[in-house]
Every structure is written in C-alpha cells, then in structure tokens.
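An instance noted here:
***
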Amino acid sequence: MQVLSVDIQHAGYEAAQSVIRDIHFTVRQGELVGIIGPNGAGKSTTIKAVMGLLDHVVGTTDLCGPNHNYAYIPEQPILYDRLTLWEHLRLAAAAHELSDDALHTTAIDLLRRFRLEHVIHHYPTSFSKGMQQKVMLIAGFMAKPDLYIVDEPFIGLDPHAMKDLLDILREELLRGAGVIMSTHMLDTAERICDRYLLIHQGTIAATGTLQDIRMHCSMPEGSLLDCYTTICARSDDVYEDA
C-alpha cells in the first residue's frame, strides 16, 4: 500500500521561476526511499513541496496512508530557548494529539534509547548539535505516523546514536511506516535504502533500486557513490552541451 504519491510538474519559490520539475515518485508501506544529490540540486525544495510549504507548485502530493499523516525531522534542529527537553516533547505530543499515557510511554522509552534521561529537565538550546538532533528524532518518532520525512539525520550523531536511529527506523519500517530520507552519507544509504531518487539540476536523473541505478549508468558492480558520481557527470555534460 502506498503512503505517499508525488506528481509534481514544476515548483519553486516564485511563480515565474521553477526550481524543480518532473518530480514523480511513490513511497510504499515499509519502504525507505533515499533522496540523494549534490548541494543545490533541489532536494530541500522537493521536501518542502511534498510537505506543502511552497506556494508555487503545479502538481499533486497525496498522503495516502491509513492516517494521512507524517512527521518531519529537519536537518537543523528547531528548538525554543525557554522550553526544557520534556516541555519540547509535551509540545510535540500536543501537536500530534497524543494522550498523556502515550506521551509518557513512548517518550520515556525513546529518551532511554537515545540516552537523554539525565537531561530531561534541561534546556536543549544548550545541548551539543548531536544531542539537539536526538531531541528532534525523539519528537518525530513519538508520533508513529504513516510517513517520515527525514532530512540529513546523521549529521552530528555519534556512532551509538547512528545505530539507535537505524534500529528505530527498521522497527518503524516493520510497523508499516514509509520513510523519505535525504542524505549525503551514500555508504549508509546504500546499506539501508530500498530505492533511490537521484536529483540533479532540479529533476530526477535516476531512480529505482541500487540494481536499477547500476543498470542506468552501466556499472553492474558499482557502489552507490560510483553511480552517483557518474550520473551527475553525465548530466553536467548534457547541460553544458545544451
């Protein structure tokens, strides 16, 4: 069953200027789709279009899971100076309409798994980047939505936290959630993603499983990084010739 269907003809920040075009993909239950591409390729714009944060979009984005909901975990933590960690989680629970019982059960488990119980009443704005990222991960995972939209989740995380994140992602995929994950860590993406969208110069340069990507660039044994580099180089050549 699909949890997301995206059919965007073009989109951008101004009516007369498209940043992305011909972005078409789906995400199924239990599927992790990796969005990869160089800086400025259109990954963040694609994510914003999916979440309905752009005013100028021609096309459709449909949340089609059982509950029609999603959780967004941004690259840059969004935190409030005067709220403690626990107060941030209470605010997130209220936004997702979680009961007090669900808040305590889920949040306490996630705090334990990410080893943040000892700072539950501290202010996250004083935390390290990695600890702040954990706060955002906990707030997102509390919701247990149909779809997760995760932007560069590994930045700032230590190896233990990365393993915790990957373990929880696997559990959520088994539960039936779908995941879109934008990342520059291609070695990790190669190990965990089911399919990929390689976005370059505002459009999809290649899509599919790793095997599909390999066939696309005629590299049957190539790593995701090898294929990524080759496809971007070919797209650049086509763009220059045009």
Q: What stands out?
A: DSSP finds eight helices and nine strands in the chain.
